[in-house]
Amino acid sequence: MLAIKLKRIGKKKQASFRVVVSERRSKLNGRFVEDLGWANPRTDTFNIVKDRILHWIGVGAKPTDTVHNLLVRAGVVKGPKVAVHKKSKKQNATSERAVPKSAETQGGMNAGVAPVAEAAQTTEAATPVPATESVLEPTAEIAPAQEFPAS
Predict the structure, then answer these.
(1) Which residues pair with 35 in a beta bridge?
(2) Quick one: CATH architecture of 2-74?
(3) Over the stretch 115-136, which tens digit does the pLDDT of each residue have?
(4) Which residues does residue 21 pair with via DSSP β-bridges, in sequence order?
(5) I want to staple 68 with a disulfide (CB 3.0 to 4.6 A). Which of 63, 81, 85, 138 is the partner?
C-alpha cells in the first residue's frame, strides 16, 4: 500500500522535509516512488504539486496524519485536521480521576462535590444502625501481679 510521507532532509538541527510517495512500510530514508514537494517547519513554508497529490490519492495512496494536516492547510484536501499528538493512557486516566464526570456535565469543579455528599447522607439514613445495648462485663476479676523475690 502506498503512502504520502515526509522524508527528512537537511543538516543537524535544521530539519527540512520532502513530501514523497513511498511504500507504507518502507524506511523513511529508503526508496520512494515520486517527490511531490517540500516543507520547512522552521520558516513554516511548503510547496506541494497539487495535481500529482490528487492523482496519488485517487490511485489509493493514503497520506500520513502530518501530511494530511499539511494538505488541509494547503487546501488540497477538504475536512478537519487530524490530532497527531495523542494523550498517553496514563495521562488520560489521571485526568479522568481528577474531575468527576458529574462535574464535567454540570460545568464546575464544586458542582460534582454536592451530589456525592448528599448521596452519602441518604445512604446513612436509609440503612438503620443496630443498637448495641449489651456491654461486655468482665467475667473474672484480674488478680494483682505476684512479686518475686530478687536473688
Answers:
(1) 20
(2) 2-Layer Sandwich (3.30)
(3) 555 555 555 555 555 555 555 5
(4) 4, 34
(5) 63
Alpha carbon distance 97, 114 (integer Å): 17
DSSP 26: S
Cell of 33: 516512488
Q: What are the start-end ranges of the E strands in the chain?
A: 2-9, 16-23, 34-40, 45-48, 62-63
Counts for the chain of helices (H) and strands (E), in that order: 5, 5
Judge if pTM exceeds 0.85: no
Close Cβ partners of 102 (under 8 Å, ≥ 6 residues apart)? 111, 112, 115, 116
Q: How far apart are CA 69 and CA 63, in angstroms?
A: 9
Residues 6+ apart with CB under 8 A from 38: 16, 17, 18, 19, 46, 47
CA angle, residues 109, 111, 116, in degrees to nearest 5: 110
Q: Phi and psi (nearest 5°) for 16?
A: -140, 155
